[in-house]
Design a protein that fits this description.
The complex is a heterodimer of chains A (456) and B (452).
Chain A: E1 12-14, H1 39-47, E2 53-58, H2 61-66, E3 85-86, H3 91-96, H4 99-113, E4 117-122, H5 124-129, H6 133-144, E5 147-151, H7 160-174, E6 187-193, H8 199-210, E7 213-219, H9 224-228, E8 235-238, H10 241-255, E9 259-261, H11 267-281, H12 284-312, E10 316-321, H13 324-336, E11 340-346, H14 351-360, E12 366-369, H15 373-382, E13 387-390, H16 395-400, E14 404-407, H17 418-433, H18 437-441
Parallel strand pairs in A: 2-3, 2-4, 4-5, 6-7, 6-8, 8-9, 10-11, 10-13, 11-12, 13-14
Antiparallel strand pairs in A: 1-12
Chain B: H1 2-6, E1 15-16, H2 23-31, E2 37-42, H3 45-59, E3 66-67, H4 72-77, H5 80-94, E4 98-103, H6 105-109, H7 114-125, E5 131-135, H8 144-159, E6 168-172, H9 179-191, E7 195-199, H10 224-228, E8 235-238, H11 249-257, E9 261-263, H12 270-284, H13 290-310, E10 314-318, H14 321-334, E11 337-342, H15 350-354, E12 363-365, H16 370-377, E13 384-387, H17 392-398, E14 402-404, H18 422-445
Parallel strand pairs in B: 2-3, 2-4, 4-5, 6-7, 6-8, 8-9, 10-11, 10-13, 11-12, 13-14
Classes of the chains: A alpha/beta (456), B alpha/beta (452).
């Protein structure tokens, strides 16, 4: 087993080696080089896709600069979310306080861009210099008539998960303030879907075909007005439960709206997401339409999936995601392709997530929480991994070690959700596993996969 | 120069689409150029993670930066125990020879005495502990370029010793040097039969090959031996020109140890590279090697071949101060016409440095942002813009071709191999610019001429 820092041992478990326990939901160890960012990151990624709001980062330039246009969230209309707004605090602002600058910035941005709302993200030093952000937000809201919402996202406050919570709190102030007239009784909100590469559009189209109205998608292709009237939906369908569950729970508390947890990655999971909504409404018409849709979509992709499966069977994969829920879908989706998961982990999973993940995986699979480059690299080598699924900071680890890679994080430009997304996923996995480059990189052969040029 | 004074670099209180990233990124990069050194950012974990992501996507290499992971406790009571824990864990995991601690806004604002914490830690750990260097680099003090410079200065100030005379030539690699540029600088110095110490040297650590096994800290970089020997070196070569900080590594070594500093602008283009060669000739007492004279000849020849394509083409230069000045000087040599020079750095010396090489009507924006740049750019009928990936946000809607250069480049491959230094670097840049202009002409002509 990989050599680990003493305190990290509790965050790793190999299935079959004793009773399942896994430490998680803790702050990262100082110096461990965790892949996690901070509270601000959690808030920023959740609210980012709301396209007709100003997202103003109150702090020095870095926080805003590093998050400028990094999410692949697409919008069908306004693109205010693709601009990077910051109060860009300087030394004198830190000394004298930044509240005046914040107020001036808000007023000028609201006047110029006429947003439907503004979110103000507090960063680390704002917490220290004591700017009364709430007061500024209230004053500007009152004067301009544009709702200005504070997001308590100081980086040091906790982990990324605390950022999700702060974002949900911010959204919660909007929910319930809009008109719910003309909303169909067969209506849902989609939570935890960020329209990366247009995935929300794919999902919305399925529900539309079924006859279900999507009131609000939180927050993909997001609009402030939709969030305001989200309480008009009869069901919350929650993907990426890690980030949006707090809001789903709040909405149940406030409006009695029930929620279900789904995933849109992988054939089985997408089908389930559609059937469960039909089941919830108890409508046989919906059920029939869902079945027809699933049959049609899967018929379209199955032949190609089977052929790819033939080429990839036996490959070994490692998964490291931000939230744990996605890991489940990936394990299943990979099984569809004949690929075995030998490591699965996440930055922010909780105890329930990990125990269910362990259940799902094969014997010998390593489950890991909040890993870092050194550990991950050791696992890739020890477990003879052929494919790593992760984000930008995981990619160079894979490539350096001659391991294939699939980008499955929020910066990806390729849709991987829904039926069509499953095909895209299969093609991407194929394009990395079957590349001839690995032959030149490895001195010792890896898992034998059909080589394109070797008489096939 | 009337125009240089009257255009405001900002018309908004807030910054919209920043033209710079922050100081600790520069610090991390500098430390990654020291052999077996590990950067530790003292502050919130987010800083390290975001900085890693930016460096990874530019260099397409792993970039491990540790963090002291401040939580609420540290923010209120001070981050000493966090930093000590980080140093201990980095030491046991990475076994570095050197740890570079750079501060973030948070640590500076709460007033942590990093020097004191580090000293105490080193004393308690005794002889087993690696050397630790510390630099003050909060984001509100400057951009990534200033953070890089401050960290290199700290490394030199804290590690150079009054050693006996040696034949080393200190060469201070600027942040705008790509790994390929650094390799070229090394080659040039060695071709004069001098022994260079590139400080810092990320040419291998951020542009390496494939690995059989994960390298906790990638191989390469300036060695500790080279760093301690800086005080006894025979000379230093710096590229701070007129836009450098008031105290630079080169002049610190000169003040403290009497090491003669040859300070010149970035070696971009004919004249600036000639200055570098003059310094090398002076230090080595040797003439320019034939191979490089030949290269100079090729550059000059190519400048002539391309002169009509480039003549008075209207160009915008966006990036770090030193790079913008270097590029403007090159433009002046080949006939390109900068009409807009912009940097996100704090107000500095850009205007005065540019006075020599740009015409009166060139607009100069310091401490600006991309939104302001795009407002100004749209009326300038630009033929070309040279800048990092961020310029595409406004250049694309205006239909202006982009030459990717500077930091960050994250929508193209090969940032580590882009060259601007030396006669060879100027040639690469010349070809890129000329071909981009030709390509545009070809497309606009519609007929698709095959001979140009």
């Amino acid at each position: 087993m990989a050599e680990l820092l003493e305190k990290r041992r509790l965050h790793v478990h190999q299935k079959g080696k004793g009773k399942f326990t896994l430490d998680c939901e803790r702050p990262s160890l100082a110096g461990a080089v965790s892949q996690r960012a901070c509270t601000f990151c959690g808030s920023r990624v959740v609210l980012y896709p709301i396209a007709d709001a100003i997202h103003l980062v109150h702090g020095p330039v870095g926080c805003a600069a590093y998050t400028w246009d990094i999410r692949g969230s697409r919008s069908s209309g306004p693109e205010l979310h693709r601009l990077s707004f910051t109060t860009d605090l300087r030394e004198q602002d830190v000394i004298r306080g930044g509240a005046i600058k914040l107020e001036k910035s808000l007023r000028e941005l609201i006047a110029t861009y006429q947003p439907k709302a503004a979110f103000v993200y507090s960063t680390c030093i704002v917490g220290v210099i004591g700017d009364d952000v709430a007061a500024v937000c209230r004053t500007v809201s009152k004067d301009t008539g544009v709702e200005v919402i504070e997001v308590n996202s100081e980086g040091f406050k906790g982990t990324k998960k605390d950022g999700y919570l702060a974002a949900c709190d911010a959204l919660n102030t909007l929910v319930g303030t809009g008109s719910t007239a003309d909303i169909s009784p067969l209506s849902i909100n989609i939570l935890g879907e960020f329209n990366i590469a247009g995935e929300a559009w794919i999902i919305q189209e399925y529900y539309r075909k079924m006859g279900v109205e999507v009131v609000a998608t939180l927050t993909g292709d997001g609009r402030v007005e939709d969030v305001r009237r989200a309480h008009g939906a009869r069901l919350n369908v929650v993907q990426c439960s890690g980030s949006m569950m707090p809001l789903a729970k709040k909405m149940k508390e406030r409006f009695g709206i029930p929620f279900i947890k789904v995933s849109y990655f992988g054939v089985e999971d997408v089908a389930k997401a559609l059937y469960e909504v039909a089941d919830h409404f108890g409508s046989s018409e919906l059920q029939r339409r869902a079945e027809d849709l699933v049959a049609e979509e899967t018929a379209a992709i199955l032949p190609r999936l089977r052929s790819i499966r033939g080429e990839l069977s036996g490959a070994r994969a490692a998964i490291y995601t931000g939230g744990a829920f996605k890991a489940f879908s990936l394990v299943r989706a990979l099984r569809t392709l004949g690929v075995r998961t030998v490591l699965a982990g996440s930055q922010t999973g909780n105890a329930d997530d990990y125990s269910a993940l362990a259940e799902l995986c094969d014997e010998g699979t390593v489950i890991v929480d909040d890993t870092n480059p050194m550990e991950l690299a050791q696992f890739l080598t020890e477990l003879k991994v052929d494919l790593l699924i992760g984000g930008v900071k995981e990619r160079p680890i894979a490539h350096k070690l001659g391991v294939g890679f699939c980008d499955h994080n929020h910066e990806r430009k390729r849709p991987l959700a829904g039926f069509h997304g499953m095909l895209e996923f299969a093609e991407e996995v194929r394009s990395t596993l079957l590349s001839p480059v690995w032959r030149h990189v490895h001195r010792t052969p890896r898992t034998a996969l059909p080589r394109p040029s070797e008489g096939k | 120069m009337k125009r240089l004074e009257t255009i405001a670099p900002r018309t908004t209180v807030s910054t919209i689409n920043p033209c710079r990233v922050c100081a600790p990124l520069g610090a991390s990069l500098a430390i990654r150029g020291i052999s077996q050194a590990m950067p530790v950012l003292h502050g919130s974990q987010g800083c390290a993670t975001y900085i890693r992501r930016y460096l990874v996507s530019h260099y397409r290499e792993p970039m491990d930066v540790a963090s002291s992971s401040f939580g609420e406790q540290a923010t209120i009571f001070g981050g000493a125990s966090n930093l000590e824990a980080a140093l201990d864990n980095v030491m046991s995991r990475y076994s570095p020879s050197l740890i570079g601690v750079a501060t973030t806004c948070l640590a500076e604002t709460i007033g942590d005495d990093v020097a004191g914490i580090v000293k105490r830690w080193a004393r308690e750990r005794g002889s087993g502990a690696p050397r630790v260097v510390h630099a003050s680099t909060p984001a509100y003090s400057g951009s990534h370029a200033e953070g890089y410079a401050a960290t290199v200065l700290a490394i030199v100030a804290q590690l150079a010793e009054n050693t006996s005379s040696n034949d080393q030539v200190n060469v201070f690699a600027p942040m705008s040097a790509s790994p390929a540029d650094i390799r070229h600088l090394r080659e040039l110095v060695e071709d004069f039969e001098l022994r260079p110490a590139l400080v810092p040297d990320f040419s291998d650590t951020l542009d390496g090959g494939s690995w059989e096994e994960y390298e906790p800290i990638p191989k390469g970089g300036t060695t500790l031996a080279e760093l301690t020997a800086m005080g006894g070196a025979q000379a230093s070569i710096s590229f701070d020109g007129v836009v450098g900080a008031s105290v630079t590594p080169g002049n610190l070594l000169e003040q403290r140890f009497g090491v003669q500093d040859h300070n010149n602008p970035l070696p971009i283009g004919l004249v600036a590279t000639d200055k570098l060669f003059a310094a090398l000739e002076s230090i080595s007492n040797r003439p320019c090697p034939a191979k490089h004279s030949a290269e100079r000849g090729r550059l000059l020849d190519s400048m002539v071949d391309a002169h009509k394509v480039l003549f008075e083409q209207r160009i915008a230069l966006v990036g770090d101060q030193a790079l913008v000045v270097g590029l403007a000087a090159f433009c002046a040599e080949v006939g390109l016409r900068p009409v807009l020079c912009a940097t996100g750095s704090n107000p500095g010396k850009l205007k005065s440095a540019l006075a020599e090489c740009v015409s009166d009507d060139c607009i100069v924006l310091e401490d600006t942002d991309h939104t302001r740049v795009s407002e100004v750019a749209k009326d300038l009928k630009l033929d070309l813009v040279v800048g990092p990936s961020k310029v595409r946000a406004w250049a694309r809607p205006l239909g202006v071709p982009v030459i990717h250069l500077g930091f960050p480049i994250h929508d193209r491959f090969g940032a580590a191999r882009l060259r601007t230094f030396g006669y060879e670097g100027a040639l690469q840049l010349l070809d890129r610019i000329t071909n981009t202009l030709l390509e545009r002409r070809q497309e606009e002509a519609g007929l698709g001429w095959a001979y140009l």
